[in-house]
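Last lecture ended with a question: if I hand you only a sequence, what can you say about the shape of the protein? Today we answer it with a concrete record. The protein is Heavy-metal chelation domain-containing protein. Below, first the input exactly as provided, then the predicted structure, then a couple of comments.
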Amino acid sequence: MSLIDSIWSTAEGLLSDEESQELVITGAWRTVLWLRPSRREITFKAEYLVITIEYQGCSFVAQDILDKDLQWLVGKHYSVARQASLPVRIAVADALCAHPSRSITPDAEELLDGSPEEKALWRARIVARETAAALRSAQPISNRDDGSVALVGVSALIADELLHLSRRVEAFDLYRPLVNSRLRNGILIRHGSKLLESLHTFSAVVVTGMALSTNTLQQILINAGAARVPVVVYAQTGANIAPWYVRWGAQTVIAEPLPFYNFQGLSSIRIYRRAGPPTR
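The predicted structure:
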């Protein structure tokens, strides 16, 4: 079963019989922004889809979605999205899991307040802190460069913080304008397709950005599990789904539901951890 099919099965399994018959999509919209929350950060494009079914779910968009397709969804039973595009399926499942009665209690939660720049740095330090814990849990492997980290989905701020705890950080991304460029800290950004062939050489993998909506997260979890490399997932896409990743192979999940750090005001970071070292 694919990861998105597992996600849908999990989300629908949380519904009562009455809910499964009555829940409809009440809102759907896209947001597009260019963002550079700090002088240390790269400028990147963020395009995401929000779906409301009582509560809101989100998916970053890796393909074009037409306004007429979103308009058609509103007022329909949520199940019409089962055969929709991947971002729509993710956002609908995420919205289903967003209801407090269906959510998983996090191991820790931090509330971020202040400017987008302040929250961006705070978020990066949380990711680095949880990665440090994952590195401590990693089992020694003879062909592994101990302490090395792969960053999948580039954030310069997160990369900077990872360099404080690892002598080797490599970055991977599918966004072509970034590929083969270097961050200000000197890290070369390689194409995301190069990750799997070298994944076994890392001590930990940090997955950020659109790994679910680009349909790459499942293979990362599979390969990392086989190589006993702990995976730390930072999830804005599918933040309400993300706690389940711990059961599907992730060591730690850092989930950030709407409103994201790039908006001023209060944001929430929820942390879910799997006890013990990664095993398969």
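Comments.
1. The longest strand covers residues 44-53.
2. The chain is about 30% helix and 20% strand.
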